[in-house]
Design brief:
mainly alpha; 8% strand
Length: 191
Amino acid sequence: IWTELLKEEGSVMDGPFPAVEPVDHDLVNQQKYIVAVTKVFRAKVQLYVKPRKGPAPPPPTTAIIYVANRFPAWKEDTIVMKKDLISKTGAYPDKETLQKSIKENAALAKNMKLIMPFLNDLKGEYDESKDAALELEMPFSEMKVLEECKKVLAHEVNVKDVLIFSVDDANAPEKPAKAQASPGKPSITFE
């Protein structure tokens, strides 16, 4: 094989070890993102075609995906507050510390019932990915990655067409799923 097919001189034993390209961490993050998103979308389509209550709707033909580039203001303020607490103490703050900080901030205090469940979700993400869970924006374009994987997504959720919209797009259809999108967690609905 070495001399006949590869047309190399000498012995394979004397050949250099193959050079390895440096790891593209951005590409690795995009791959992890698309795998996670696809898993969530498959679960959502299963809930759509087999609802817990009532008759099953006809199989969907179109998937509508909403992508958010920014969190709502109260979520951004909550993440910034949490980052500040972590940088001051060097550790993840406990529930009492978080509640005290929220109560001291008038803008956050009015959303206490929304913030605490959000913080619980954020805690799980922080345990898994540390500082990446506290980023306000994705390090890559979600729209671009989803557009590039449109055919795969259509196959995975068994639809003919996939439409991808930014939540800021004036032409995006108004569906309840639009409000559920956040950076790193696009939402999906079906027609």
